[in-house]
UniProtKB/TrEMBL annotation:
Name of the protein described by the UniProt record: Tubulin polymerization-promoting protein family member 3
Subcellular location: Cytoplasm, Cytoskeleton
Gene for this chain: TPPP3
Domain of life: Eukaryota
Organism: Electrophorus electricus
One annotated GO molecular function: tubulin binding
Length: 177
């Protein structure tokens, strides 16, 4: 029973890496880039026994001649090939079990992703309560931006000059006469 859950976790890891970075991928086939990422992220590549070149060679060896991707069955063959290389002192079965333990349940990591800056200067520069002059008009009382109405002076087609004190009183003045 324990072996079926291990296979399920291995299949899950395969599917996670297969769809990584590809919007149209179904998770049934894995390309060479994602295979190399799986080997890097799951520490299959150790730099001594298994290198990036070894991973590429094994990928080319197990895939179909005209294909650019590997299926889950080919993925398992590739793991068998690398297991004996990665775990030299172990038997074939033990090496394969150790290889499965490295990969099971894992998914792609996002290394090198830009994080949101958190610092005093950024907080100070983006604090809308400290804005003055025309920039202050871009935000409401809560600090939320007004959008286009905050950036542009909207034209009123009333016929009066902006900020005219007696706007709307012309009709009253002409009636009085």
């Amino acid at each position: 029973m324990a072996e079926s859950t291990d296979v399920d976790q291995l299949l899950q890891a395969f599917e996670r890496f297969a769809v990584h970075g590809a919007t149209k991928a179904a998770g049934k086939e894995m390309n060479g880039k994602n295979w190399a990422k799986l080997c890097r992220d799951c520490k299959v590549i150790d730099g001594k026994n298994v290198t990036c070149t070894d991973v590429d060679i094994v990928f080319t060896k197990v895939k179909a001649k005209s294909s650019r991707v590997i299926t889950y069955e080919e993925f398992e063959k590739a793991l068998e090939e690398l297991a004996s290389k990665r775990f030299k002192g172990q038997s074939k079965e033990e090496a394969l079990q150790s290889m499965h333990k490295l990969i099971e349940g894992k998914g792609p990591t996002n290394v090198g992703i830009t994080k949101v800056a958190k610092g005093g200067a950024l907080d100070r520069l983006t604090d809308t309560t400290k804005y003055t002059g025309s920039h202050k008009e871009r935000f409401d009382e809560t600090g939320k931006g007004k959008g286009k109405s905050g950036r542009e002076e909207l034209v009123e087609n009333t016929g009066y000059v902006a900020a005219y004190k007696n706007a709307g009183t012309y009709a009253e003045k002409t009636k009085a006469k």
